[in-house]
């Protein structure tokens, strides 16, 4: 009987299946009620695994040297891990929070087995401050990007208020109407030429950053070799999405602009407390952009229509403003600068160029070359940022309501990484930072301070506008 082979891995997915980039995606689901092991097996067998055949596949190299997915017999029990925390901690939620994040940090560095489908589910049977029990999915990034994996989970969720109604998602802000249509012919040609020149320039800078152009060494960027194997600290902080929308309305931006501006301000405060910061230091962030270019999901059906599994994203490098004298800079200026930077980058084709370049490198030099370029791009930048939009309503999996869920990424060659996810009107920010180098508690404190200052300035602006 012929082997059942699925299509080859994309260039990005192949690069994630090399020793150079052992990236893993970690998704945490926080439940109101506990599951036992048999219930977890049932959920995986009936709800999640049938959605994509990749969950029953290993990565196989065929006779032509092409890596593709190969169907195998799946034993679900082999993929379920139930850890044991230190004795006596089951009633101490604060203590369990500490053990929980330490456990996440530990598994973020572990390698997944090569002889079985590359995913695991860790059942944390201890109550934490936000859950009675938690399920932690750890998956090889080759399975798909955050969009693919989260859409798999979303399709298994049901609304708590009415399971028959569709789950809905926040609608991303539409871009402002372009003035391009109002230009005369000469202006259109000039604008087109300018965009082409800027695209080429930006693409060259991105390529140089991936080869040898590095950010400056700072208190958020160490030069420790093979950072992806260095112990991490994982922490979480939550903000109100309505408040963030108030900020975005004041600056005329998007929620994404506010997130990047908040992170920029946080980095500035953190660096200010630990070192003398000059405005000419090079500090940049690597932002993962979804190449499906969706402006936002209306519901799960819309999200699933594309049926685009795998890794389909581009690399966007943005400079973070430091402002040498930040005491005289409005907190909102960090968001305004983030907005300007994102507008400039999104008007270029450099994101698409990065995807095209990876395909060219894969065809000429193989997947290791793609992995090498992506690895060095991450290593040469100061931090990473990725975000996913989540449901607006409270949802349940197998009739068990979720208090929250979020994701992070393991195996990144950076000292600091931010992942952001919305759910039920809240925005959850997860920091994963180099243990012993980044003061994670101070970093979270700086983020709360930055957020408070931004809100205060927003309220002043609103009051001035209404008076």
TrEMBL record:
GO terms for cellular component: endoplasmic reticulum membrane; plasma membrane. Its main location: membrane. Pathway: Glycerolipid metabolism; triacylglycerol biosynthesis; Lipid metabolism. It is found in: Cell membrane; Endoplasmic reticulum membrane. Keywords: Acyltransferase, Endoplasmic reticulum, Transferase. The keyword Endoplasmic reticulum applies. GO terms for molecular function: diacylglycerol O-acyltransferase activity; long-chain-alcohol O-fatty-acyltransferase activity. It is a single-pass membrane protein. The keyword Phosphoprotein does not apply. Residues 309-453 form the O-acyltransferase WSD1 C-terminal domain. GO terms for biological process: triglyceride biosynthetic process. It catalyses: a long chain fatty alcohol + a fatty acyl-CoA = a long-chain alcohol wax ester + CoA; an acyl-CoA + a 1,2-diacyl-sn-glycerol = a triacyl-sn-glycerol + CoA. Pfam families: WS_DGAT_C, WS_DGAT_cat. InterPro entries: O-acyltransferase_WSD1-like (IPR045034), O-acyltransferase_WSD1_C (IPR009721), O-acyltransferase_WSD1_N (IPR004255). Residues 97-259 form the O-acyltransferase WSD1-like N-terminal domain. In the N-terminal section; belongs to the long-chain O-acyltransferase family. This is Diacylglycerol O-acyltransferase. The lineage of its organism: Eukaryota, Viridiplantae, Streptophyta, Embryophyta, Tracheophyta.
